[in-house]
Amino acid sequence: MTRRWSIAGELFALQVLVVTLLVASGTAGAVLLARSDGHDAAVEEVTAVAETIALSPVVVEALRSSDPSALLQPYAESVRDATETDFIVVMAPDRTRYTHPIPDLIGQPFAGTVAGALAGGTVVEQYRGSLGESVRTVVPVRAGDGSIVGLVSVGITVEAINRKLLHQAPAVAAGTTAALLLAAAGAWLLSRRLRRQTHGLGPSEMTRMYEYYDAVLHAVREGLVVVDRDGRVALMNDEGRRLLGLSEDTPVDRGVDELDLPAEAAALLTSRRSTVDEPVLAGDRVLVASQRETRFEGRTLGTVLTLRDHTELRALTGELDSVRGLTEALQAQAHEAANRLHTVLTMVELGRTEDAIRLATDELALAQQLTDQVVGALTEPALAALLLGKSAQAGERGVELSVDELSRVDGEALPSRDLLTVVGNLVDNALEAVAAAPPPRRVSVLVRQDDNEVLVRVADTGPGMTPEQAASAFTRGWTTKGPGHGIGLALVRQVTERYGGSYEVTPATGGGAVLTVRLPVPS
To answer: Any idea which GO molecular function terms this record carries (predicted)?
Structure first.
């Protein structure tokens, strides 16, 4: 199976290719520039040599002699050797050569352009002559009166110019090689760092991984919040946004304190401490949070917080507890009813019929009195059912629960769920408070509605609260029942604050505590 290239490998190959092309282009440009510079330097050199020879008095006198070649040939060759040019030709105005590196060509016409020099100018050209292609210049030789008595041509072959360029080739090659090696080393270091960061994955693998991870993060039913080592929220999935009350378009790539998160969730994220299944209040939700530090190859990457909505589960648990309490109460009442029934039957058998009737009717009247009181005062059926169930539960636990005769709720002034949260948790707290207290164990409930607010007051004969306990009773985590509790009164506080109401704890007359909640009725 052919191994797919990783992103780092592809990037390295691409960088090497690009750098090679850039260096090759730069080298080619440098060679062309050097060649152009060499041509220009050759032109300047032959022009300077030609003009120097043309101004020499020796050349002017020799051109007027009877045998110019005898005087000029040695002179021209010595100058050619000294200047390292390829040819110096001194000629007559009619092109007849007086000097040449090849003696056999002396006396033959000069091959090249001379018209410009005969007109008094300088001819510069690249021309293929007897020595091959060369860069040459032709200048006039003037007598004392200014007349042109001859011409001087000096040239350097193109082959000689190229040889000079080849002498520079090792330096150019060394510079090119160094540039390639340096660029390749930089590309290799960059690809190595990228390989570590991408764990050697290829583009298709990373694309597939992103698609799968993104699909999973959006599909899971648990909220997920990832915070990096700098305290910035790096990731939050859809369920996390929903549970923490953030809209879908809220950007999360910012610090924890910059997001409008619930106070307890923000405090947990900021603390970075590890925890498992810790209750966290978020608005009217009870969330179960688990947080742990994430590490990779010994490096701390940040923390991961998972959230589960515990509200519905807690509501179901509360209902189950109520049902269990009712079941136990019914079982106890069944035993009591059986005992009373046997008592009534025995009294009838003994002929004490009137006493039997009185005993039976008293028990029925007592039970019916509580039912009539609750149902008559509270037309909200869910609240009435809750208090009747709590009354049975209290009776099973040896607690006398009474509903204040001033209680009155007509209709649904508040949503049933919120009202049940407040009343149910206050009653549960009171039942827990008096369960371990010495007799008499009493809980009194007042629920009264007027035009502006709903008043809920629950009094108990328990041990009461110290001022410090009263101040912190409605905060999450405050409890006298051990770990895993301390949520009920905190939920009451959240409902109260959402409606803009108030809550307070005061001592009861004769001992115990009175918890009062006032909920404004929405207009």
So the answer is: ATP binding; phosphorelay sensor kinase activity
